[in-house]
Amino acid sequence: GIIPTDEAGIQKETVAGLKDRLEEAMAPFTRKGIAFKQLVEHSLLTPSCGLAGVQEEVAILALELLTGLSREMRKVYG
Fold first, then answer.
1. Burial environment of residue 10 by CB neighbours within 10 A (0 to 12, 13 to 18, 19 or more)
2. Measured between alpha carbons, how far is 52 from 41 in angstroms, rounded to an integer?
3. Does the residue 1 lie in any domain?
4. Average pLDDT estimate for 40-57
5. Which of 1, 18, 44, 62 is the right S-S partner for 48, CB 3.0 to 4.6 Å?
């Protein structure tokens, strides 16, 4: 999961920050020869854990961030 699960962490997050973190997390795999595009094509973007413990508007924000990250990754990597 890429989205923090605490309310403060979610509220501080940006799509650009998530994209940077995701690319950094995938770097060890690409250094081993796995194509980044292949990783992206076979990935599922999720929060780090469930969102049941946060307020509804924060859960909605987390899902909006995931949607934005998905759009950005598709725009950049196809």
1. buried
2. 28
3. no
4. 90
5. 1
